[in-house]
Amino acid sequence: MAWQTSKTNWQAADVVSKDDFNRIEGNIQHLQDTKETPAGAQAKANAALNSAKAYTDQEVGEVSQALAAHKNAAAPHSGHETPVGAQAKADAAAGAVRAELDAHLSDYVLQVPYGVATGSANNYAVTLDPAPTAYVDGMAIAVKINVNNTGASTINVNGLGAKTIKKPNGNDVSAGNLKAGSIYSMRYNGTNFILQGSDAAGDATPEDVLSGKTFSSDVGTDLVGVMPNRGAVIITPSTANQAIAAGYHNGSGYVEGDADLVAGNIKNGASIFGVTGTFKSAILISDTVQTSADTERTVSNESYQKKKEIRIGFTGSVRVKWELWIQADYYLYYSLRVNNVEKKSGYAYNPSVSQWYSYSYDLVVSKDNLIQLYLFVESQYRPGKVRNFRICYTVQEAVSDVVTLD
Question: How far apart are CA 345 and CA 335, in angstroms?
């Protein structure tokens, strides 16, 4: 009886019919008819095992025969490596590679080893691994400096001896060129270790460079100038030398000139800023006031006293003027002198009126002469006065001299 589809959705209210029972009974019978017995299952397993064993025995036999035939063939096996030989060759190859690697690691010309410096400022040491056996030309190292240098310095690599550290220009390093914590590359040139990548050179100092500008020199790098910026300096000539302040001048400054600085305006024979004068003049007597001592002074002394004085700055002829005041019926005496030598004397007097009197006198004088006025009164109880003591003259340019008869 064939298997019939089972009903798997029974509900409590469903009514079971005879067909349902027939289907259930039929499926039970089908299961009974088709289930495997233990004896049948064992028989099937034994048959499968025997079949597999027979196949395996057949395949193993074929492989064994092929292997035997291969072994019996001499030609294919001539020169085959033994395990021991193969291991020896492998070891030799590994040794060669190791030796080449060690040689490369020890070649401090082709590569740059790194180390941290020890020692004190200016006297550095470094240890490399692998250790070099000698200094060679072109040998390189990269060193992290442990302390700032304060001047010329050396480095000793693995105890091979101290070698001077130089700049690329051949100069010793200066104070501060090697800074703690910084890494510097160097190469040995057969005598010294030369810093790489640094070629700051020159003898400039901060005083030589404009304030605020940075520069590098033998002194160091990233230095800052301190030279003051003077900008445009304008100098006005005077009678004394004027110092030019040190610093940067931008080229727009100048020394002031004067269009009147010509020979014709300079006294004959005198030289001003390299210009020799040709001006000739004559001092002529006139009433033109050139110098004056106008202060009004009282005269109450009963013997001569100096009341006015003017120093002459040239040689020539002048007219001296002055004014005197005296009370009525009293005398005021004067003495006009040059360097205390009397040139003119007299008095002022009016019997009935107190008043001012004007006087003048022409003199020939020389440079630095002192023209003086000495005065006294008849009675100190009747004082007089003096004012407007003046030197009068005219400066006239002299015409060129002409020889009219030789």
Answer: 4
The confidence score (pLDDT) of residue 200 equals: 66
Q: Angle at Cα 192 formed by Cα 187 and Cα 196, nearest 5°?
A: 35
Looking at the fold, whether 293 and 388 belong to one and the same domain comes out as yes
In tens, the pLDDT along 326-351 reads: 999 999 999 999 999 999 999 999 99
What's residue 95's pLDDT? Answer: 80
pLDDT at residue 78 in the model: 57
Q: How far apart are CA 83 and CA 205, in angstroms?
A: 76
Residue 373 burial by CB count (10 A; 0-12/13-18/19+): exposed, middle or buried?
buried
d(CA 219, CA 205): 7
**Backbone φ, ψ for residue 222 (5° rounding):** 55, 40
Phi, psi angle pair for 28, to nearest 5° = -65, -45
- Which residues fall within 8 angstroms of residue 386, CB to CB, at 6 or more apart? 296, 297, 299, 307, 308, 322, 323, 324, 325, 373, 375
Q: Is residue 155 part of a domain?
A: yes
3-state DSSP helix/strand/coil % of the chain, to nearest 5: 20, 35, 45
Residue 318 belongs to domain spanning: 281-397
The predicted pLDDT at position 145 comes to 96
Q: Which helix (H) or strand (E) holds 277?
A: none
pLDDT at 356: 96
Structure-token match 């395996």, residue found = 56
Each residue's pLDDT tens digit, 137-193: 999 999 999 999 999 999 999 999 999 999 988 889 988 889 999 999 999 999 999
Q: Which residues of the chain have pLDDT under 50?
A: none
DSSP summary character for residue 80:
P
Domain presence at residue 252: no
Beta bridge partners of 344: 336
- Give the residue among 249, 280, 402, 384 at the shortest CA–CA distance from 325: 384
Q: Are 138 and 194 in contact (CB under 8 A)?
A: no
The residue out of 147, 181, 203 marking a domain boundary is 203
Any idea what the CATH number is for the domain that residue 333 is in?
2.60.120.40
pLDDT score, position 90? 81
Looking at the domain assignment, is residue 127 inside a domain?
yes
| Sign of the alpha-carbon torsion through 289, 290, 294, 300 | negative
Sheet containing 162-166, strands listed edge to edge, beginning at the edge strand earlier in sequence: 114-116, 140-144, 183-188, 193-195, 162-166, 154-157, 123-126, 118-120
Do 285 and 199 share a structural domain? Answer: no
